[in-house]
Specification:
Layout: H1 4-10, H2 16-33, H3 37-52, E1 55-57, E2 63-69, E3 72-78, E4 81-84
Antiparallel strand pairs: 1-4, 2-3
Length: 89
């Protein structure tokens, strides 16, 4: 028998259906914007380079996601910041 907490927490975990839907949405956004994977990778690297000029970041833990809302598309970045760069204001 599954505990009450297990059943409650299971509701908040993304299932395979939700993950597949997110992947499909990302593919559709790529197609709609005509963004090649190489261009998207270049864009991500450029964004990380600009942020890294000011603060120390964890590039390996950075994540990017394309999301759509009401016909608008956004590139959402999650970039962990380790700290400020020395000698910069």
């Amino acid at each position: 028998m599954q505990s009450v907490w297990g059943r409650l927490l299971a509701r908040f975990r993304p299932g395979s259906r939700d993950m597949a839907r997110q992947r499909l949405q990302a593919v559709l956004v790529h197609d709609r914007l005509s963004l090649s994977p190489a261009l998207l990778e270049d864009l991500k690297e450029d964004i990380l380079d600009v942020i890294a000029r000011r603060v120390d970041i964890d590039r390996a833990a950075s994540a990017f996601q394309l999301s759509t809302d009401g016909g608008r598309t956004a590139l959402v970045a999650s970039v962990p910041i380790r700290g400020l760069r020395r000698g910069r204001r």
